[in-house]
Amino acid sequence: MSATAVKRVTTVLFDYGHTLMDFARPQELLVEAYHRINQRLEQELEAEVPSAARMLVEVSERVDDEIGRSYRGGAEQEVDIASLYEDALSALGMHLTPETVTWVIEHEQDAWLNGITASPHAIPVLEELKPRGFRLGIVSNAAFAPQSMRNQLESLELSQYFDATVYSSEIGVRKPNRAIYESCVERLGGANGGRVVFVGDRLREDVVGPRKLGFDAVLTHEFRQEDPAEWGIAVPVITSLDQLPALIAD
């Protein structure tokens, strides 16, 4: 970790996944969720529907694969999550109302709440930064609805620390598109002459993108490790979030 503090910081923006939290696919809970989805759809359609196990693969996993391909391809436009689920369900012969598709997504997301874990350092770090007067925000690439993401923050007991949260699903574009960072700074009332620091695990989205707006950046290796040398980038690297407060000077 660089020993040089970032000066005159007023605002700290965090990535979400693999920065403040980590996650693992909660397979058993997802299967249970799809059993309940299966039961509701049978009642609603008044017909036999594919098994929960099949729907888990051909709906949930198919959607995950589509999102992953879009991200790996570098697209800055966020996917339409409802359309992905609607297409996957339709491919199985289930043509549902938009309200039912939304219910399926939300029900699956409820199961995901049990697969996410906050960094053990997240709350102590936020509790240290907040009294120092920093404005704190989250800027996250997330295909799912903003309310689902904010529900995750609530379940992790993190939401109270943030003055603004912005997800790609609500503005339609992903990092490193400048609009998503700017949206969060605007919600925080602007930079007000101070420095903005972005903390995240990805070089393209969390270092290169923010620096194009004049932000400082800190790369975290707590959950994922991208090598700045492979990009020819010099950036402070922390191995866990608890190293962050010492790096930021207010």
Class inferred from helices and paired strands: alpha/beta
* Proportion of residues in β-strands: 5-15%
User: Looking at the structure, what is the overall shape?
Assistant: elongated
Radius of gyration, taken over Cα atoms and rounded to an integer in Å: 20 Å
> Total helix count?
10
Descriptive account of the structure:
This protein is an alpha/beta fold and 250 residues long. The protein is built from 10 helices and 8 strands. The strands form 2 sheets. The protein has a 6-stranded parallel beta sheet with strand order 5-4-1-6-7-8, sandwiched between helices. Strands 2-3 form a two-stranded antiparallel ribbon. Helix 10 (228-231) links the parallel strand 7 (216-220) and strand 8. The longest helix has 21 residues, at 52-72. The protein starts with 8 loop residues before the first strand and ends in a 12-residue tail after the last strand. The model has no long low-confidence stretch (mean pLDDT 94).
Q: What is this structure, in a nutshell?
A:
With 250 residues, the protein is of the alpha/beta class.
Secondary structure elements and pairings:
Blueprint (H helix, E strand, L loop, with lengths): L8 E6 L6 E3 L3 H19 L6 H21 L8 H11 L6 H15 L3 E3 L3 H8 L5 E6 L5 H10 L8 E4 H4 L6 H10 L7 E6 L2 H10 L3 E5 L7 H4 L5 E2 L12
Parallel strand pairs: 1-4, 1-6, 4-5, 6-7, 7-8
Antiparallel strand pairs: 2-3
Helix pairs in contact: 1-2, 1-4, 2-3
List keywords for this structure.
about 250 residues, alpha/beta, six-stranded parallel sheet, 10 helices, 8 strands, about 45% helix, elongated
